[in-house]
Design goal:
The protein is built from six helices and seven strands; from the N terminus they run βαβαββαββαβαα. The chain is an alpha/beta fold. Strands 1, 2, 3, 4, 5, 6 and 7 form a seven-stranded mixed sheet that branches. α3 crosses α4. The chain starts with a strand and ends in a 7-residue tail after the last helix.
Length: about 190
């Protein structure tokens, strides 16, 4: 069995992978995350997940046996990708645009071993209740939305805004565990090690 590397700095992804009993090491994978013109949100997250896996693999010795897992998550409203907020005004605008609406959360995973790469895109629908400006400001002041796609974290304080979820909770957090376990199995990496 090849050792597994997670090409992500996300503490949430590390926690989720640990939750299913998979041994792994973390490796850096900085890539340009600028969307391409006319790129669909699903193609965007899949490209980034594959790019992160490839960037992580490039940091290892070429002849070292290894599998590298990359992932990317995007919050999508009306076909538009909502990235990480750049400041308080951006975070407030994002949160208020999501308020009372249903939006998509797309998470892509990609696993490569140097010879092959497999990927999956998981789509979940999240519905928010109405949110006041005062709540949006208080949420920003908590510090939580600063590094989150779409400006919120479903696994934290942002959970109070979620009135419904159709899909994978772990995918909305950042790593779809069912699909990740399936993909790992294709590469001979079992869960619950």
């Amino acid at each position: 069995m090849n050792p597994l590397f997670l090409a992500s700095g996300s503490p949430r992804r590390r926690e989720l992978l640990t939750q299913i009993g998979v041994a792994f090491s973390v490796i850096g994978a900085d890539i340009d995350e600028t969307p391409l013109s006319d790129e669909s949100p699903a193609a965007y997250v899949e490209r980034l997940a594959r790019g992160k896996a490839e960037a992580g693999r490039a940091r290892l010795s070429a002849d070292a046996p290894a599998c590298v897992l990359g992932a990317d998550t995007a919050v999508v409203l009306d076909g538009k990708i909502l990235g990480k907020p750049v400041d308080e005004a951006d975070a407030q605008a994002m949160l208020l645009s999501l308020a009372g609406q249903e939006h998509e959360v797309l998470t892509a995973i990609a696993l490569l071993d140097g010879e092959r790469c497999e990927s999956r895109v998981v789509r979940s629908l999240v519905r928010f209740r109405p949110i006041s400006v005062a709540e949006a400001n208080a949420y920003w002041a908590s510090g939580e939305p600063r590094d989150k796609a779409g400006g919120y974290g479903i696994q934290g304080l942002g959970a109070v805004f979620v009135s419904g979820l159709n899909g994978s909770y772990s995918s909305v957090v950042g790593l779809p565990l069912c699909e990740t376990a399936e993909l790992l199995g294709h590469f001979g990496i079992p869960c619950w090690q």
